[in-house]
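Project channel, design review

CF: Before we commit to the Ideonella lacteola constructs, I'd like one complete example in the thread so the newer folks can see what an input/output pair looks like. Taking Secreted protein.
RD: sounds good, go ahead.
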Amino acid sequence: MPSLPFARAASASTAPCLVIAGKVIAGKVIAGKVIAGKVIAGKVIAGKVIAGLVIAGLAGGPLPAAAQPTPAGPMGDGSYTLPSLVTDTRLMPIPAPGAYPVQGDTVIDPVSGMHLSRFADKSELTGDYGGYHSALSAIVYSRYSPTNTTGEFVLVHGDNSTSAWVYRTAKHRPTTILRFKPSLGAASRALGELNELRWDYSGKFPYRLYFVGRSLPASQSVQGERPGMSFYRVDIDPATGQQGTPVLIRDFSADFPGFTGGEIMNDVEGDSSHDSRRWAWMVMDTQRGNGYLPWAIFSYDKAQDTITGRLQRSCKGSPAPCRALDTPATPAPYLTRPNMVEMSPTGNRVVVHFERAYAGHNEADIGTVADGPKAFRRDFSKPVRIGADATHSGWAWSLDGNELFISQNNRNDWIEAVDIRSDASAKCQKISDNSYGCGTKVIPYSRLDGGSWTLGMHFGRLYDRNKRGWLVMNTYDSKGYTTWGKNQNLLVQINDGTQKPSVVARLGSTANQYFDYRSEGSGALDFQGNSIWTTGNWGFTDGRGDVFRIRLPDNWFELLPQP
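CF: and here is what came back for Secreted protein:
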């Protein structure tokens, strides 16, 4: 794709202005022009970048950006507003894809008006166990917030799934690598994606992280516990950004005495309830030579330090509440392995992402509870089918404030929004064979990818229950930016798309070109709903990639069409 124009945001002390034909015209916006594919904007004066805005020369009409945008602060941390969001189908490629942004620069997307910043650099990820050096700085998944509830700190991961650093947002620099036993320094095992690091969402402990002890050695235990079966917390000092010593919350090995060979995990992608009170994990046998299998799935109330439900192949000898589930496709004493488990945002349901069973794949499970994703009560009673298969998914809120499970349905090629409270609210119906459609059909894949069938997608979650009626997602496609829905950040109105096309609000390019797993992007909306944090490569496919921040306008939700 040809380079599109871009402007760089000024420092907080720089007045908004426009650069036209090499001259700075302060205080006014005068229509600019694109000349021979080049944009005259963003002139550097005395080492400072002056905010520019290109008005003309783009397909689809004038930019949606404000006539005089509020200057962005360092790394785009400053607030700004826009008069509108793009809802049409013009192309939004990476701004100036041949020039990898300098860490600290903010680029204003010339089509969407969004502020993009390269936040981290892989060279800063030092101190990992064994001297490992990551090839990427990464946001590893879209389904949970990488920032704490105040927005002061961000989790940045390495590419090895076993390392992570805490960055101070305002400084865009790391304050600490996370270690299991920090007193050992570099000899300590680091904490990373496998440890399922999650910030506290309750508002009571904004500098607290929770994690599980997966893959951590007993020799570095906190107080003699089995790390793989244990749940921990660690606090970050807000003044220094340094971590404290991890604290054991509970060792679950005594709760499953018949199980001696594995670890607890949600399998990386799951999250707690939105108050960090309720959690769900699998008790996974990680010592089998032919693939991990779950011995049990359980829910946990952190406030009461109580297991609130268990799902097992047999409940013999297990304390109540326990539900036995026969999964004939998998040999006892194991359950058929789901893709992941998690708590719903309200904490009312345990969501077990069982895969669709079909001829040649878990065939004996067809028609059982283990066939397709289910939402259980916390005691694992009343399972509700909530989707066709264990596909990429996220969470949103209905207009009346109910939690909605968002997923891509690979059986009918729609994105669906499902009210998980009951079978009646989920509205799942068999399409044919063992295929189901559920809930509200929001938007078909073909509308986003032009019928090319090469599009992948990830979904985020909206933590704010007042932001209702919209889902957040990002797309990835090896075909670049050839159609409007490829490699984009999007807000989609939750509407019956079979009756009326859902409005799609465009949040600009993902700053990324997909070519392998780590380049899927996986943009995550932060807890405050201010920014999308993503791994981007700015169109380069040479293996580079760093954490980018797409700072949203302060008024983004007010700009969305309301029913």
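RD: helpful, thanks. Residues 1-76 have pLDDT under 50 and may be disordered.
CF: The two ends are 37 Å apart (CA to CA).
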